[in-house]
Amino acid sequence: MPAQRKRPKPRTPGRPRSTTSRDAILKAAYQILNEAGFAGFTVEGVAARAGAGKATIYRWWKTKGTLAIEAFLVELTPRLERRRPTGSAIVDLRAQVHQAAAIYRGRAGQLLRELIALGQEDSATSRRLRADFVEPRRQYAIRLLERAIASGELPAQTDVAVLADALWGPILHRLLVSHAPIDRSFIEKLLDLVLGGAMRAAPAAVQGAAYSSAKEGSQS
Which pLDDT band holds residue 209 (cuts at 50, 70, 90)? Predict the structure, then answer.
């Protein structure tokens, strides 16, 4: 009598192995990056902590820099996009800038400086950081400014690209170049100066209501 062929065991429900492994690698990578900075960041260390092989890591990430960038983005992006929109684009923009500045004041700001410095030597890392971190933040600000124009909070002739750069440029300059504080007081003054100047060209009634609403929103 022929031996019965064993039936394969049914797969247990859950996430695919590759997704689970990738998530474990990214989690381990951010932990090491957060603990030791990029100077202490190694593929060997990530592999050991994640329980993964170096070959697996290098199959998905060509360099340790691109792994570090993705781990940083996976951790940081949800924190930057956590706040729910309100009825005012200016309120939302002020809140977004405050939220980002609060994050940059912490460990994430130190890591961002290290990763940007790394990008000066590693073009792949630099491209990834610009495409997946810097530009999305700028585009989000531009969309909010376009909303503000549509709602009348800003005048129709506002150059949203220049205005977005005027908001984020001083913050990044302090973070990366001067290392001057980016505390709440500085952010409030920056927002008042940049957005206040742009809003002064809007109709007086809309301007007053939008400014009051924005100030109340930034205090919440």
Answer: very low
